[in-house]
Amino acid sequence: MLVKVLNCLMRDDVQKIGIWGMGGVGKTTLVRELNNKLWKEADTQPFGMVIWATVSKEFEMGRVQKQIAERLDMEVKLGESEETLARRIHERLEKVSSFLLILDDVWKAIDLDQLGIPQTYGRKATKIVLTSRFLEVCQSVKTDINFRVDCLCEEESWKLFCKNAGEVTRLDCVEPLAKDVSRECGGLPLAIITVGMAMRGKKMVELWEHALEELKSSVPYVKSIEEKIYQPLKLSYDLLEPKMKSCFLFCALFPEDYSIEVSDLVRYWIAEGFIDETQNHGYLMNQGITLVENLKDSCLLEEGAHGETVKMHDVVRDFAIWVMSSSRDDSHSLVMSGIGLSEFPHEKFVPSIRRVSLMNNKLKRIPSKVLECVELSALLLQGNFHLEELPVGFLISFPALRILNISGTCIRSLSNSLSKLHELRSLILRDCFYLEEVPALEGLAKIQVLDLCATRIRETPRGLETLKSLRLLDLSRTHHLESIQAGIIPKLLSLEVLDMTLSHFHWGVQGQTQEGQATLEEIACLKRLSVLSIRVVCVPPLSPDYNSLIERLKKFQLFIGPTANSLPSRHDKRRVTISSLNVSEAFIGWLLINTTSLVMNHCWGLNEMLENLVIDSTSSFNLLRSLTVEGFGGSIRPAGGCVAQLDLLPNLEELHLRRVNLGTIRELVGHLGLRFETLKHLEVSRCSRLKCLLSLGNFICFLPNLQEIHVSFCEMLQELFGYSPGEVPTSVSVVPALRVIKLRNLPRLKSLCSQKESWGCLEHVEVTSGNLLKNLPISSNNAHRVREVRGETHWWNNLTWDDNTTIETLQPRFVPADGYIPTGSLGISCYQSFNTIEEASPLPSRSGSQAEELL
């Protein structure tokens, strides 16, 4: 990290550098090392002067100015105003040929002009480095680059711990316990140092066992821990607004190292009233996501294990639990999540408790004793798989309950006392696989979220129609749901999200469903609905009601047909999947106008549908970004006179063709007038008749934005890009932006392009079972950009090259396909070792973005 900062200081385009990270992670140590290194190398480093000033939480302009003035050998006059001193500092620094200003521990935006700091971007060696716990503080002073200081890896943590705990860590009886203690510090340098020093010289195993137990308890009493570890975190916590404090503390209810779905977290916050519940669902979700990002920028939350999740650092979580367990206000909570608990801790349920988290344990039964926790607002019991019932009188102990989560349990039924929870906002029964019936819901007038995902219910609960405040109804994966009575759905006037993904229930239009069953017309009545995912019997006809519904939805997934289903895509915000249907008479144009992703799966009548689409369409489908056609055994008829006069899919970014009977993609292009000017990702698989991927010509001369090509199991394919008879090749590269090409099981493939080309942006190449391919579009001009070429060794050895420079550049980047491990399955992290006490680790690697979820 120190080297990275030094390198940036040498760059002409960087004047201000921000260094941020949680309290105690080593930011000050890092800039102190920077300061000391520059002082030691005073004769060779580029700065005529290095100035250090500590800002701190209680910022006083005059105090910081005085530190700067003293370093400049300036006399600060008694009673001198801040404005006068700022002017004098500015004049003094203007006379210095070059300087570096280090501002340590900045807590809020600081006006450099008021401080007296000249900001002249033309001066190469006039630089500013500041440290803060908050990214937004760095950004507020318009930093050019920001470095996040993260926690240490386990190996570096252990080295630092041993350095502070001393030789005692080498004792056979102590070392295993010492490693566990070190691990509990979660890589936080300040915690490692403090705990290490506290245990220095202690040889008794009992002392180490006690220290480990206290650290795991989240309420540690090891000497100096609270003062030296939690105090820095408490400063960050105290700076939060009350609403942010509540949101932050709620995150600690989840188990250690647990990745929390952001959408679930925000819904909890809404149910608790931390976020104004009067706004619409989309607004509230955006507000919640903003709060999550603010907590991440404050280093109180961090990225989770996968996209759209967050988690708490172990030490930060321990601190939050310490705050909640020692509090007697509305944050008083009991947190015993993910600790293997098998007995219900009823003795810990005190009247003042507000939140209880017993999730992810081994609870089998709950005593029927009334607990009288009249202030309890959240009860999290999810993940106790062996739990089979809630006693009849259990729920009436919590009259103020707003959140009840018993998902992932073996609960088979719930008592009627559920209806007594008049304050309930969120009832989550997800993955209760044995739950066949939910008691009547009358009395839950304030409920906003009802999650019945993956339960065994056969019909919707009685009293559902009375839930006038219900905003989200999740019936996804209800594989046994057979009936939704007519007249229920239109009464849910506040409903904004209806998720029935993979439900057994299929919606139909009026006249095509069983008498007494709900129809699509009822969904169209929901004026506040913004998110919808349902299975539909057939393609709905165009009607004003349906068209109005689709237009006002912000997100939707329509699975049309008896077996409709598909894998997610990054463009699934508004997806239509049509499966196992005769689409020859279907008009889908009105749907495509509002769709971002279309999947056609094992349909027939595709030729007629394409012709109807061309004939009936008066404009392009500008929103469509992704098109998938799979399992079409018939041949695509030549377009003939039925050709679109304009590109019907001008913004198409992804094209997936699987098991489609095509000789070339141009056969599909002809009908729809496709130009592929925005196409970024092309995937073709198991198209047995395909001989040329794409014939170039008048319609398509090149693919300017194509970045990835994946072609596999096309046994007749001989060439990727060829030219139609009579067409003259252009001088422009066919795929000037292509970065990745993966070719698998293509036994007849001989050429990538009929004319010799060098694809200048190519980075990753994979060819397996394609031994006839002898040339790659790589020359000495672009070989340096290629990061990896993967394939069988005998194929690699038989390739021909224009010159030795190309093969010499690529040889170290060749990876044999034998023992192939897919990219992304190995996590590789590199850590820089630091020699001072409060070591800092380098920037973390960030995971790639995941496919966007519907909810």
TrEMBL record:
Residues in Disease resistance protein winged helix domain copies: 253-320
Source organism of this protein record: Eruca vesicaria subsp. sativa (Garden rocket)
GO molecular function: ATP binding
Family (UniProt): Belongs to the disease resistance NB-LRR family.
A GO BP annotation: defense response
Superkingdom of the source species: Eukaryota
Domain NB-ARC stretches: 2-167
Record keywords, A-Z: ATP-binding, Leucine-rich repeat, Nucleotide-binding, Plant defense, Repeat
Protein name: AAA+ ATPase domain-containing protein
Pfam families tied to this protein: LRR_RPS2, NB-ARC, WHD_DRP
Ranges of residues in domain Disease resistance protein At4g27190-like leucine-rich repeats: 652-776
